[in-house]
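Please think about what follows:
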Amino acid sequence: MAKKVLVILGSPRRKGNSAILAAQITKGAKSAQAKVETIYLQEKSIAPCKACFTCQKKGSKGCAIKDDMQEIYPKLLEADAWVIASPVYWFTMSAQTKIFMDRCFALPAYRSDPFKGKRIAIAMTYGDEDPFASGCVNALRTFQDAFGYVEANIVGMVYGSAMDAGQIKLNEKVMQEALELGKKLAAA
């Protein structure tokens, strides 16, 4: 049975460097027979979490905010694996990605242990030459901490330096790593 992979693009640039890395991961996943769907967060209306804790109350029917996350929650639950792709903005993940991550707080209201065993790949791009100076490491650590806490499985992370749109394609090593990560993500 084909694995379902959900790609979450957190860049405001549809054809930006992080989207290119995500497309390469997608290519690898599809070569391993996975079914892939992509969500472009920039096109969605997603409000920040209000910390109302409605989603955490006994008998909750989910997040109290009625926006485009309501259509994303079932897709997150149905997918066997996620790809989260983001550029580095101001020393961490993009605002679109951060709002998405915050709103995942409500997932347990829809199904118990929604993260446990979920396979996740992370793709990041940044403008500096150094993943530490750029802040990429801050974002990667956030993903590690969050997904480790909820017992998800980060299958791999791929990241590279690229300022101008499309520049990441010139980094053959990172592009190959992304392709292999997609294959690994879709594997049993």
Q: What stands out?
A: The chain has one domain: 4-186. The two ends are 10 Å apart (CA to CA).
